[in-house]
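The records we work with from here on pair a chain with its fold. These numbers are not coordinates but entries in a learned vocabulary of local backbone shapes. To see the layout at work, look at the sequence and tokens printed below.

. . .
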Amino acid sequence: MAKEVINIPPIVLEWSDWIPWDDLKADARYGGVKVPNGVPGVYEAKYGDSDERLTIGETGDLRRRIKEHLVRGKGRSTSGEGIRAQEDVSKIVVRWVITDRRAVAQAALHERHVERFGRLPKYVKRT
């Protein structure tokens, strides 16, 4: 049997501020929040007064995933569908981080959430 060791360097995540869900609905050209366009990263959504995440996701295009799919529902996002249908979005905040290592970062954030809360975020089915 062959053994192989993979050394994975640390990932430093420089998060955006937490942004209210409703502020993400508005177009950035008309005073809305600008989310980085065409760049990969990880995003999280939670109630503003809670540490428990509703979702932790990864994407190749932060703006498209957050503004179009998650918040506005103009694309496929099972997390977004559930949150929009079952939660009080006026109390939800979202943040993001740009990273080329989005899948590894997402998996680590999922693992940390499970360690802290005993389960994946409410709208995450698997890592």
